[in-house]
Amino acid sequence: MVSDGPVEASETLWRTALHDFNNLLAGIQGVLDLSDPAEPLSPRNRLRLEATLEEGRNLVAMSRALALGRIPDAGQLPWPEWREGLLRRLEPLSVLFKCPVEVVLAESGDGRPWPAPLLQDWAVALSRQILPWVAPGALRIEAEVAPEGWRLRWPDAPPIPPALLPVPPEDAARNLTSLWLRSMGERLGLTLEAREGTLVALLPKD
């Protein structure tokens, strides 16, 4: 993927951020509209509200990263901890879209630790882009350590979102997540391909 250049100071960033935050407020209002004002929130609506607020915190983090260039420090985690962190980040999306999530290690590999936290955040952001087309089915992410780096696969996924193509069409729908994905993907040197109904992301070795 190739980024559009310095999105940090662009009008596109402001437009997409305002649009996405407006959608966030609409989501919160939707939870309140479905609740009885005379009664406490039901367990289901409380989960939806918590998940929506977590999405809002993610939008703030993305906006800050794009506007200020604040990127989390790179680290590494053993696979079990890396997977647990990814599932924890995906939980709000699973609640909002009523979509179960499965993360598996397709190959045992060589026991190499996995990059964190940016690759985890990137995987969650891409999942957010494709979940509307996957739900209400299950979202499956397959991971493997390949000779050339770390590979993630999303089987039975829709095509690459137009905004994430190497050369996006002019009418491609853009949002804050797609801007963040392009920018962080370029920083990581990450590639995204579609192979026979599967989206494949590769983070090369240093």
From TrEMBL:
It comes from the Bacteria. This is Signal transduction histidine kinase dimerisation/phosphoacceptor domain-containing protein. The lineage of its organism: Bacteria, Pseudomonadati, Acidobacteriota, Holophagae, Holophagales.
